[in-house]
Write a sequence for this structure.
């Protein structure tokens, strides 16, 4: 509605038309700057925010409220080990029918973690206060929680 002669075009048609116009005006052209096709947000390391996922009999599920927060175990004396090598962290008990439940052992990378840093300042009432499902005060249900 505000794109001139590109209005009404689907993405591919608009992309091609804009590219053709840029080339004709000598102001640009098509090029590939990088080949990033997917962003892996997990890392195989000891430190970082644990991913709250469990593998229950081979099926992945997110940790329930009663299983949160997922906390890292105390660092072993023998040095920093990947979490997969720490059975006390990796093994999360038994699921339905006695199936083995295994915790996700990758952690979020720093790019993912730092993108949520601002959320802490929206609700400064204390630990666990920034949960969208359980805002720290009734007033926040229409304040920051509406945007988080």
């Amino acid at each position: 509605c505000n794109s001139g002669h590109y209005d009404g075009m689907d993405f591919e048609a608009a992309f091609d038309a804009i590219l053709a116009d840029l080339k004709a005006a000598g102001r640009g052209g098509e090029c590939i700057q990088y080949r990033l096709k997917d962003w892996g947000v997990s890392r195989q390391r000891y430190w970082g925010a644990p991913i709250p996922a469990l593998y229950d009999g081979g099926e992945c599920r997110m940790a329930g409220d009663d299983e949160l927060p997922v906390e890292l175990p105390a660092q072993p004396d023998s040095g920093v080990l990947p979490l997969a090598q720490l059975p006390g962290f990796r093994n999360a008990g038994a699921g339905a029918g006695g199936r083995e439940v295994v915790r996700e052992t990758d952690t979020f990378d720093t790019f993912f973690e730092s993108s949520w840093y601002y959320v802490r300042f929206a609700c400064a009432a204390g630990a666990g206060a920034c949960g969208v499902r359980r805002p720290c005060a009734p007033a926040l249900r229409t304040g920051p929680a509406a945007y988080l």
In short: The two ends are 30 Å apart (CA to CA).
